[in-house]
Amino acid sequence: MRRGRKRIAFRFYVLLLIAAGILCYGLYTVVDSLVMRTAVIDSGSAVSQYMAEAVIVRSETLIDAESVTSITYYADEGEMVYKGNRIAAVYTGGSTQDINKLLNIRAQIKTQHKNIIGSAYNDLELARIDSQVLDYTRKVEMMVHGAKGNLLNLERQLGNELAKRQAHLKTRNASDQNLQNLYRDETTLQKKIDSGTNVYLADSDCIISFYTDGYESVLDVVDFDNIPASQVRSIIAGEAPALTAMQRGRTSIFRQVRPSGWYLLLISNDPAWNPIEGNMYKVQLEGFDDLVIDGVVTSAARSGTELLVRMSVAGDVRAVLNARTAKAQVGEGQIAGLKVPLNALHNQGGEVGVVLVDNGGIFVPIEIVAMDNDYYIIQPLAVGALREGQKIRLF
């Protein structure tokens, strides 16, 4: 019996000793982490995120004119127009009084026509023309409601009939001196207005916008990669662009914007961001929560702590048609590597690295390849100098 009791007691003491060893090792680990401030290199991945201030650049042409009296718009804001389409008619060098006079004269002509038609003989030619005009009008209405046909051809035919009607009335009522005087005044005023009217047609397929901010001429996409950081900062700060002598006194009318392809100028002070030409990033612009774009780096330059990144974007410009600046969050995609806490990095002799606890506290220079909220993804400058499981100092 005594031998059995001794065996049980021996086993108990062995288990107790093992438990004490585990406890001591645990305490050593805790003390080592808290007092010695160490961590273990692990493997991990992160999505590299950078914050920046963005300036939006579009391939756009500003149309302006001086001495603008009135503008007639044929296109709508944000409308896609095609080469040769009318955009606007701009009356310059005259006065709105001329336009008002012309409208008043035409109202008098219309009234005079009604009086003559109501008291005159039955005009078969006029009746035929009016019947044809009504027929074309009904066909236009049917096409608006879904009927098939050539609307442009129908519009041309209707215009021809209206011109015939006007010419017929002028000829038929040649003896009415009052009406002839009104016709003469109408022609004189119309010629005067036409001489000062410029009708703008689209010189290419483009999007039309009537909202301008003055930076259209400053931000030249042809010389995009030479736009300096100082100019980008002034735009972000909301400083008005300087006007040239030619631009002073001119009125902005509209801008023609190329529908696909636009650009970003990004200013960042993140020291961990080292973009390379050709790199693609996911860019989220503040205020455009449902828009994540792919930006490709065309060039980048750092001056001190400030980084200027230039990107091209292949998407539709409509989403940012009337935006110029925004805060931007730039993501580089998921990167795997060795993971260390944020406070594991140490600067020694101008180099950034980590200090190994073992091997006499060796300093190993590293490169940061990604950053998360709690850790860095790193790689050693010397291949194989670090590996998963090594213990490093925290600072």
Q: How would you describe what is shown here?
A:
- With 395 residues, the chain is an alpha+beta fold.
- Among the domains are: 51-61 and 219-334, Efflux pump adaptor protein, beta barrel domain (Elongation Factor Tu (Ef-tu), domain 3), CATH 2.40.30; 95-195, no CATH class.
- Helix content is 32%, strand content 36%.
- It has six helices and 17 strands.
- It has helices at residues 2-34, 96-119, 124-144, 151-172, 177-195, 229-236; strands spanning 38-40, 42-66, 68-73, 80-81, 86-92, 197-201, 206-209, 250-268, 280-285, 292-303, 306-316, 325-341, 346-348, 351-355, 363-371, 375-380, 391-393.
- The strands form three sheets. A six-stranded antiparallel barrel has the order 2-8-11-10-9-12. A three-stranded antiparallel β-sheet has the order 3-5-6. It has a two-stranded antiparallel sheet with strand order 1-17.
- A hairpin with a 2-residue loop joins strand 10 and strand 11.
- Helix 2 (96-119) runs antiparallel to helix 5 (177-195).
- The longest helix has 33 residues, at 2-34.
- The mean pLDDT is 83.
CATH architecture of the domain at 51-61 and 219-334: Beta Barrel
Strand content: 35-45%
Residue-averaged pLDDT, rounded? Answer: 83
State the low-pLDDT regions, or none.
none
- The order of strands across the largest sheet is 2-8-11-10-9-12
Task: Briefly note the structural class of the backbone.
Answer: alpha+beta
**Main β-sheet: number of strands, strand sense, barrel status?**
6 strands, antiparallel, barrel
The CATH topology annotation of the domain at 51-61 and 219-334 reads as: Elongation Factor Tu (Ef-tu), domain 3
Number of strands: 17
In CATH, the homologous superfamily of the domain at 51-61 and 219-334 goes by the name Efflux pump adaptor protein, beta barrel domain
Overall helicity? 25-40%
Q: How many whole angstroms does the radius of gyration measure?
A: 39 Å
Based on Cα principal axes, name the global outline.
elongated
Order of helices and strands: HEEEEEHHHHEEHEEEEEEEEEE
Name of the CATH class of the domain at 51-61 and 219-334: Mainly Beta
Question: Count of helical segments?
Answer: 6
Distance between the termini: 60 Å
